[in-house]
Amino acid sequence: MSDNDRKTPPADDPWARWRKPEANVAVDAEKPAKTETPAEAVETPRPSGTLGVRKKPVAEKTPAREPRQPQRGRAFEKGTPGYGSRAPAKREAPADTRKTDNPWAKSAEARRNAPAADRRPKDATAKPSPWTMEKRAPAAAPSAPQPAPAATPAESPQGVRLSKVMSERGICSRREADLWIERGWVFVDGEQVSALGSRIDPGASITISKEAERDQAKQVTILLHKPVGYVSGQPEPGCIPAVTLIGEENQVVQSGDPEFKPWMLRGLAPAGRLDVDSTGLLVLTSDGRVAKKLIGEDSQAEKEYLVRVSGRMIDGGLDLLRHGLELDGKPLRPAWVKQLNEDQLHFILKEGKKRQIRRMCELVGLKVTGLKRVRIGRIRLGDLPMGQWRFLREDEAF
Length: 398
Prior knowledge:
By secondary structure, this protein is of the alpha+beta class. The protein is built from 8 helices and 20 strands.
């Protein structure tokens, strides 16, 4: 094939008119060549008006640079290879190379060498400079804490609590007194007192208002002849409280008695226990004055009992019952004890420990088979039938 044949493109080549004459591209008429554009190729128009494909050069990946290991054995100075890989160690200039023409250095040198008396005192409030080279004296050790001055004892308040004085005089109980004081029903020397905890002169005059008198009139005291099987206080399993016997059907009515109302049972509590196996006089009251007189710590009210016993008393047992026994590690008060016959004793006590008479008899070889309380203070059981009750009359007192 001649050169002219190579330069003349075939007639069926559609790109012949846009090709450059110097581009020698052999075109196969039977199988035209396919131009594959790589992924990196971008088609951009050429300024000369021809259409072509410009290939962007693929950037070669530069391998990661390994960190340069600092060289040991020598320090690099600024301007030398390897500077910055390791901080150069500080070097102090020799004493003879220091500049001596610096006036500030001379004055500082003079101050350091000056006696302590000639130095200028420093301001104690000035903030210390971090660049100073002077050695500071160590801080003084903190002084030991001084002991606090002894507190002077507070003066005791003058007078006695009003509620205590009212209770000691028998006006009412301390709880009732606090309630009346809070309601403004109490007057001391004619002046109303309504502050709880108020203290007064023990000899001051105390009066109560009409409202307090009406409130006190609602309080009742009931005398009951308790049968066996009833408990005087909190009910026990299988037992019935004695307060259930207080009803209109069991009342022994007396002249001048108030009409029984169910509200009278509120606040009613026994003033002295009586065992479930015992019978006799039981006092139930809502009056704090009565309760304090019968079961208070300083109560002197006598309780009289008739006791039936079995067994043989030890020698000198009667004297031990009168005085010389102790219960729960505490000696008992002296008691009046008389032997009525072989199986019956008569007791008068001024205290009432739990099951006291039964435990006293066991210490002298006796066993109690029956116990009946017949008197409390000046109030006797009398002919009150068993299981019946009555009001304490106005002319009666313990």
